[in-house]
């Protein structure tokens, strides 16, 4: 009887551990052994990753995102003839292809949706453009309704990321050294500011993180290895801080990649490719300024995208060149990182919970 109870207890424990796992989708580059979008199971209690599976074969899905209800997944295909695809997420976690549309520019590298889930914006790095799409109720993408071409006779654009915020749209252009602001009018986005703040030198704004209220924006600069902190004012925007992402002792080459705020917005994280680190800042919630408190090795090579898990207790890094995803525990009182574990995945560049 005791043996039966013990066996039942172990079985229940195993089932509970399996039930609490949540899916992590991984976008990759497919020039090597990768075949497309992969899926792992993540244990939010322990930080463990397991059960690697190919979710969908697709060329160079370098950035992926969910619909707000998480019923659909959207992926760019970063290639010369760029495209954007929509998928329905099945009960087993596999992806059912719905449709594909033109990205209207070479090298699409980022996609995001608005809160309603009825519009998407794609940034085309190679083409120097951003495209707006409406999304049908069945999750399919319509052809682009607006295309913004940022190239000029004198300079090549590299649009790298974009985010909706209420009736606004912000686009980071690494090539033109600007963060654009658009406002929605009559179901179209119109340019409100060609640059929200003047970017001195050529830092190369790549990605950005916004506070929930939209009052503060933190821009990570690929060329400048820096973070530009911006505050929204009654008349526009103003720069309030500019901080290096690198440790003072580091002297090699570096290219910044991604940036995220902690759940409580007390800490800010950024990724360094070259130094191969995650920089941690403590954030002043009153005035928005930041202070560097940690430089943590990613235990890999070329950290591109990273993400925080839904609990806010773990940070996961996609290391493109070392073909691994590393997991770090976040210390709640300090925001600092401790390395936990890693798992091998071919050329990971985007992580999606």
TrEMBL record:
**What Gene Ontology molecular function terms does this protein carry?**
6-phosphogluconolactonase activity
Q: Keywords of this protein's UniProt record, alphabetized?
A: Carbohydrate metabolism, Glucose metabolism, Signal
What Pfam families does the record tag this protein with? Lactonase
Does Ion transport appear among the keywords? no
Q: Which InterPro entries match?
A: Cycloisomerase_2, Haem_d1_sf, Lactonase_7-beta_prop, WD40/YVTN_repeat-like_dom_sf
What is the annotated signal peptide range for this record? 1-19
The entry assigns this protein to a family as follows:
Belongs to the cycloisomerase 2 family.
| GO terms for biological process, alphabetical | glucose metabolic process
Instruction: Kindly provide the name given to this protein in its UniProt entry.
Output: 6-phosphogluconolactonase
One GO cellular component this record assigns the protein to is: cytosol
């Amino acid at each position: 009887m005791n043996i039966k109870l013990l066996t039942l207890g172990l079985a229940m424990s195993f089932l509970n551990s399996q039930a609490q796992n949540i899916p992590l989708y991984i976008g990759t580059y497919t020039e090597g052994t990768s075949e497309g979008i992969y899926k792992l199971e993540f244990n939010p209690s322990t930080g463990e990753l397991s059960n690697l599976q190919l979710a969908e074969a697709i060329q160079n899905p370098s950035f992926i995102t969910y619909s707000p209800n998480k019923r659909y997944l959207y992926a760019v295909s970063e290639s010369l003839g760029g495209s954007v695809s929509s998928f329905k997420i099945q009960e087993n976690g596999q992806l059912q292809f719905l449709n594909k549309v033109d990205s209207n520019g070479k090298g699409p590298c980022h996609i995001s949706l608005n809160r309603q889930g009825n519009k998407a914006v794609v940034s085309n790095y190679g083409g120097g453009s951003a495209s707006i799409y409406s999304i049908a109720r069945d999750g399919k993408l319509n052809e682009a309704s607006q295309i913004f071409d940022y190239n000029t006779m004198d300079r090549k654009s590299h649009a790298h990321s974009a985010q909706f915020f209420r009736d606004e749209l912000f686009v980071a252009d690494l090539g033109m050294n600007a963060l654009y602001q658009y406002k929605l009018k009559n179901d179209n986005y119109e340019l409100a500011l060609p640059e929200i703040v003047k970017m001195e030198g050529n830092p190369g704004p790549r990605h950005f993180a916004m506070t929930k209220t939209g009052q503060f924006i933190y821009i990570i600069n690929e060329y400048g290895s820096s973070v530009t902190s911006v505050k929204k004012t009654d008349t526009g925007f103003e720069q309030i801080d500019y901080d290096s992402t690198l440790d003072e002792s580091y002297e090699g080459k570096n290219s910044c990649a991604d940036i995220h705020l902690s759940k409580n917005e007390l800490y800010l994280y950024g990724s360094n490719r070259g130094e191969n680190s995650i920089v941690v800042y403590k954030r002043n919630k009153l005035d928005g300024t930041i202070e560097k408190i940690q430089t943590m090795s990613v235990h890999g090579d070329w950290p591109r995208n990273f993400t925080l898990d839904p609990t806010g207790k773990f940070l996961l890094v996609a290391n493109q060149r070392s073909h691994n995803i590393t997991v770090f525990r976040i210390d709640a009182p300090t925001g600092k990182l401790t390395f936990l574990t890693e798992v091998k995945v071919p050329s990971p560049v985007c992580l999606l919970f």
